[in-house]
Design brief:
The chain is mainly alpha-helical and 421 residues long. It is built from 19 helices and 5 strands. The protein has 2 domains: 1-192, Orthogonal Bundle (Preprotein translocase SecY subunit); 193-387, Preprotein translocase SecY subunit, CATH 1.10.3370. Helix 9 packs across helix 10 (180-190). The radius of gyration is 24 Å and the shape is globular.
């Protein structure tokens, strides 16, 4: 590992990319501590610590929400708009055609995603104004600026912060080591780790905290094994004779990941379960909505529904992003076939059956990783379990593996030994 890091800094181009990425991450962390004007931070911090939904948003913003900082919305508006665009690709034929057009079509999708991100940021800004109305009211002093003006400044500041985060992510992707948006999420989650350890020791015990860290290491190992696991479908290419040369006849495979959906099903399930909790801030007087939100926020109902929704969305998202029909057509056009399986509809059915079988263990693994830490937190009320449950660890490990893979490929191009042996 240390040798690979040293090799990365020996390559001038790669060294510049790494240093540029670190500089952008530093600016991102600075923006998480600059509060917007006209708020009472003590009241906001107590609200964030007392509500599960706000605690999750605070984690993904790297603690910026409890500071009501410029980057309070974090990267979540962009992630939400990206997921929406991915879902629309399977519904709207025009977006699917753009996806297949290459760079020009991708630019259109990126532009729409940016505008959608700003629209979602606008809605979430009004939502935060509603949530923190008590903090805004307590910070108002006699003779101060009108409330509507302060609110407008806060909304504009939060939207500008979201746009700046989006720009940071694109800069890392284009001029840094890549994977910009994911690295910003990784930074936000990791930045809360020291604070969570200190709180766990203060309000719990050092021995229990040590046991949790050891268990976390085993969970990371299991996630790495699941992320790297593949089902390889063998593919054979027919021989073609052109003049005196023989083309084809080689064998390869189609790698199908066991966990092809990654963390997306957990995000979908969490968004659905926390949606009633967000509605109660706009409709505070509806008692039945309050009861539904409390039941879905935590407890046995939350665990059961979250597990079922994660399994459902794993199959749904896998079917959305992986099209066996297109894969079968591409194999046929290139002269490839799966040994023992006839081309055409038989190949499509074979790939679908394999995909359905390998998706099940991945879905059950995701559901377990997401639900079990919530049960442990309910029993122990430990800050480390709350901050670094299965979802957080899954995101961190996935982003770390993707980043290491990108650096690995650049090192291999220059004949250096990489991270993976």
């Amino acid at each position: 590992m240390l040798t690979a890091i040293a090799n990365a800094f020996r390559v001038p181009e790669l060294r510049r990319k790494i240093l540029f990425t670190l500089a952008i991450i530093g600016l991102y962390r600075v923006g998480s501590f600059i509060p917007v004007p006209g708020v009472n931070l003590d009241v906001i911090k107590s609200q964030v610590e007392g509500q599960a939904t706000l605690g999750l948003l605070n984690l993904f913003s790297g603690g910026a929400l409890e500071q009501f900082a410029v980057f309070s919305l974090g990267i979540m508006p962009y992630i939400t708009s990206s997921i929406i665009m991915q879902l629309l690709q399977g519904v709207i034929p025009q977006i699917e055609r753009w996806q297949k057009e290459g760079e020009s079509g991708q630019r259109r999708i990126t532009q729409i995603t940016r505008y959608m991100t700003l629209g979602i940021a606008l809605l979430q800004s009004f939502g935060l104004l509603t949530v923190f109305r008590q903090a805004l009211a307590s910070s108002a002093a006699p003779g101060s600026l009108p409330t509507w003006f302060t609110n407008a400044v806060i909304v504009v500041t939060l939207i500008a912060g979201t746009a700046l985060i989006m720009w940071f992510g694109e800069l890392i992707t284009q001029r840094g080591i890549g994977n910009g948006m994911s690295l910003l999420i990784f930074t936000s989650i990791v930045s809360r780790f020291p604070i969570a350890i200190v709180q766990s020791i203060q309000f719990g015990s050092g021995l229990f905290t040590l046991a949790l860290i050891v268990i976390t290491l085993f969970i990371i190992a299991a996630i790495v094994m699941m992320e790297r696991a593949q089902r390889r479908i063998p593919v054979q290419y027919a021989k073609r004779v052109v003049g005196r040369k023989v083309y084809g006849g080689s064998g390869t495979y189609i790698p199908l990941k066991i966990n092809g959906a990654n963390v997306v099903p957990i995000i979908f399930a969490s968004a659905l379960l926390f949606f009633p909790s967000q509605l109660i801030y706009f409709f505070p007087g509806v008692d039945w909505l309050q009861s539904v939100a409390n039941a879905l926020a935590r407890g046995p109902v939350n665990w059961a529904l979250e597990f079922v929704l994660i399994v459902f969305f794993t199959y749904f998202y896998t079917a959305l992003v992986f099209n066996p029909i297109d894969l079968s057509d591409n194999l046929r056009k290139s002269g490839g076939f799966i040994p023992g399986v006839r081309p055409g509809s038989a190949t499509v059915r074979y790939i679908e059956n394999v995909l359905n079988r390998i998706t099940l263990p991945g879905a059950l693994f995701l559901g377990t990783i997401a639900v079990v830490p919530s049960m442990v937190f309910m029993a122990t009320n430990n800050a480390l379990v709350q901050q670094f449950g299965g979802t957080s660890i899954l995101i961190m490990v996935g982003v770390a593996l993707e980043t290491m893979t990108q650096i690995e490929s650049q090192l291999k191009m220059r004949h250096y030994e990489g991270f993976f042996k």
